[in-house]
Every structure is written in structure tokens, then in C-alpha cells.
Amino acid sequence: MTAKHQIKGYEYQVCVYSTGAGLYSGVILVTSRNGVTLSPIIEIPTLAHFRAERAAQIEADALALELIHTGAIDALLPLEDTILRPVTSTNA
Prior knowledge:
The chain is an alpha+beta fold and 92 residues long. The protein is 20% helix and 35% strand. Strands 1-2-3-4 form a 4-stranded antiparallel sheet. The N and C termini lie far apart (35 Å).
């Protein structure tokens, strides 16, 4: 798992997993949007499979950046009003 990245209000991590056939694939874990924690965490898998773990990580990182910078990530995330928000004294 990579370190948390924060870009344009989104916080995410990238993980790589073995597909079992000697190949690797990546997944993007979106943990928050505009400072609001997403619960549950949104998982966005990559479609490509690679022989090298590092290649799968690069692919997932590139996909995350593309989705965020084009705005396409919003179609994959829940609407703002359906996100569970932490309870504070101002919204309790």
C-alpha cells in the first residue's frame, strides 16, 4: 500500500494485489473527499494485469490522477448528501 495522497480535495491510497496467476493488479482506495471521510472506503479496481507489482502500482496511480484531474471520479463516488459525516456539536 502506498502513502496517502491528497489531490484536489480527494484523499486516496493505491494497493496492489496478486491475481493468483503470477500477475498483479491495482486498486485505488478513496478515503475522503473535501475533508469528509467516506464510509465505507470506495474501491476502484484497475482493469489491467501486469507481471510486475511495480507496474500495477504505476497503472493505479496514473488512473487515480486521470480520474481526479478529469473529474470522472465523481461518477464513481456517492453523492455528497449520502456520505456519512462525523457527528460534531454543530450538527448533532
